[in-house]
Amino acid sequence: MGSAKNTSTGSRKERIEELRRAERARERRNRFLVIAASTVAVAGLVAGGVAIARSQSDDGGKDTASDSKQASGHFVTGADGVKSWKGTLARNHVSKTVAYAMEPPVGGDHNQVWMNCNGDVYPKAVNNMNAVHSLEHGAVWVTYNSKASEADVKALAAKVRKTPYTLMSPVEDQKDPIMLSAWGKQRTVTGADDKNVDAFLSEFVQGKQTPEPGAACTNGLTQ
Fold first, then answer.
1. How far apart are CA 116 and CA 123, in angstroms?
2. Angle (nearest 5°) at CA 83 between 13 and 174
């Protein structure tokens, strides 16, 4: 039993380190692109305008949000306690407020800017539309309300800070004190020491449900 647990822990550490290396590589590429773009500022502005126009075209030009079809469906709870959304989860970039079918949301139309999710812990509520974009990138969102104990909140924050592709924030309107969300996935846990916390992170951080695996969790929005 001990050997299997150590092997699992080692694999998880290796996966986290691999994610960190990939994130650092993306940051280096981003810095290179910024430097290159600065040498051709005028051309960059023109290209940026074209890119924005194309992006709006790709999104169908949508600037509306509360379309009931963008998140139609319902949760189905598996034997492991994880709820999976069965139905439509749209992925359009929009600027107006989205009325999500669940709280916290596990997908749907969202803002074009993501919340930083490289182990980021936010002391105040974040905008759902930005957090959903983080889920699209393969992040797990740890949320809690005022019913969660201070000890659990501190312990979960420490765990999140050590885990790339995660973020944490309060969501007062959620049903249960502590909840974990990924794209199309959600579950409640009893506390920071609940074994299902690590199980959820292990399965859904950059998991198979991720619409955009490997997309950045840095250079987004912060509080």
1. 14
2. 95
Cross-strand partners of 144: 170, 178
Q: Is the pTM for the entire model greater than 0.90?
A: no
Q: List the one residue out of 222, 215, 199, 167 whose CA is nearest residue 29.
A: 215
Asked whether the beta carbons of 19 and 164 are under 8 A apart, the reply is yes
Query: Can you give the residue range of the structural domain that contains 149?
Result: 1-223
Q: Which residues pair with 188 in a beta bridge?
A: 179
The total of structural domains in the chain comes to 1
CA distance 124 to 127: 10
List all residues 6 or more positions away from 128 whose beta carbon is below 8 Å from its beta carbon.
Answer: 98, 100, 104, 105
Q: How far apart are CA 216 and CA 223, in angstroms?
A: 18
Q: What are phi and psi of 53, to 5 degrees?
A: -60, -40
Residue-wise pLDDT tens for the chain (223 aa)? 555 555 555 665 676 667 767 666 666 555 544 444 444 443 444 444 434 333 333 343 344 444 444 557 999 999 999 999 999 999 999 999 999 999 999 999 999 999 999 999 999 999 999 999 999 999 999 999 999 999 999 999 999 999 999 999 999 999 999 999 999 999 999 999 999 999 999 999 999 999 999 999 999 999 9
